[in-house]
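Regression test case RT-17, inverse folding.

Input:
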């Protein structure tokens, strides 16, 4: 079967969205990755791609970091597997391609004291934008939500009455419960009083009925806008802005819970990870806590440890 690359791409992305629940970010990334592959192939039809094409293309990707390279490989493998299943290809040239092993290294996570200081600074800005940022940051740190989940959160998702937990649809459309802290509830109550400020009061009624919790000029706040606002807040609060990002608050949420004794299974559910191996990157926190407990409570823990030497 002969098919144009563009049409094959459209069908693939439709399948990823409808059958696998891929997020808009994933679809956008895969589309860019596959368009780059098509540009490399030039006039070569998909049906005539060989292992030589694969080898030559891989050489052009050597400058990429492991994470980006693995995403490219994932897009290529899944796309060509789809073409094989649809009968468009007879042979999959990307079959058996392995991902690159990545070194698991967490970004420097802000301490509990630093996050507390940041949130206190946010609460002191009583302007509409200040109230909105405070509510969003409290929400991120209280729940561990991804920034994409928070900015697209429908207003109607919030709990009613004295409830403090609610259901969200996370990455891939998977459901999970998240839980609010008293501080997050306080910030959200303060923000909801002025939320209408961001709903374009001069626009027609249909434009004012924005369904998102955090409306903006577009449909909702953007990740880039929140990231810049967060760094500006950190800077004016006397904190290092390099340590603060929306995703960094998610890491802080996980790291701080682990340091307080939350187990991996619970943390996995709270973060919305599908695989426990993803959550295991936080085990270094637990190891550090055990080390500190041993040093504090072991009868000989207060003695200075001698250096271990290799006598070979």
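Golden output:
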């Amino acid at each position: 079967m002969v098919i144009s690359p563009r049409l094959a791409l459209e069908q693939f992305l439709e399948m990823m969205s409808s059958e696998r629940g891929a997020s808009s970010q994933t679809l956008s990334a895969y589309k860019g990755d596959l368009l780059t592959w098509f540009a490399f192939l030039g006039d070569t039809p998909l049906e005539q791609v060989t292992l030589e094409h694969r080898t030559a293309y891989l050489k052009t990707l050597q400058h990429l970091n492991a994470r980006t390279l693995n995403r490219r490989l994932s897009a290529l493998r899944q796309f060509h597997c789809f073409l094989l299943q649809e009968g468009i290809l007879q042979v999959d040239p990307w079959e058996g391609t392995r991902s690159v092993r990545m070194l698991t290294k967490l970004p420097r996570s802000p301490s509990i004291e630093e996050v507390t200081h940041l949130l206190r600074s946010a609460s002191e800005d009583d302007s509409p934008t200040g109230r909105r940022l405070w509510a969003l940051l409290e929400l991120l740190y209280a729940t561990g939500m991804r920034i994409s989940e928070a900015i697209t959160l429908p207003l109607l998702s919030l709990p009613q009455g004295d409830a403090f937990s609610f259901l969200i649809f996370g990455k891939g459309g998977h459901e999970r419960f998240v839980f609010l802290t008293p501080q997050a509830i306080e910030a959200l109550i303060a923000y909801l009083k002025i939320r209408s400020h961001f709903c374009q009061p001069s626009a027609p009624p249909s434009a004012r009925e924005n369904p998102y919790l955090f409306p903006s000029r577009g449909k909702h706040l953007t990740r880039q806008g929140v990231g810049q606002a967060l760094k500006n807040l950190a800077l004016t609060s006397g904190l290092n802005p390099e340590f603060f990002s929306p995703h960094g608050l998610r890491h802080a949420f996980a790291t701080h819970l682990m340091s307080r004794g939350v187990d991996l299974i619970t943390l996995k559910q709270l973060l919305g990870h599908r695989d426990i191996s993803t959550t295991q990157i936080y085990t270094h926190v637990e190891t550090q806590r055990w080390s500190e407990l041993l040093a504090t409570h072991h009868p000989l823990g207060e003695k200075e440890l001698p250096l271990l030497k290799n006598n070979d």
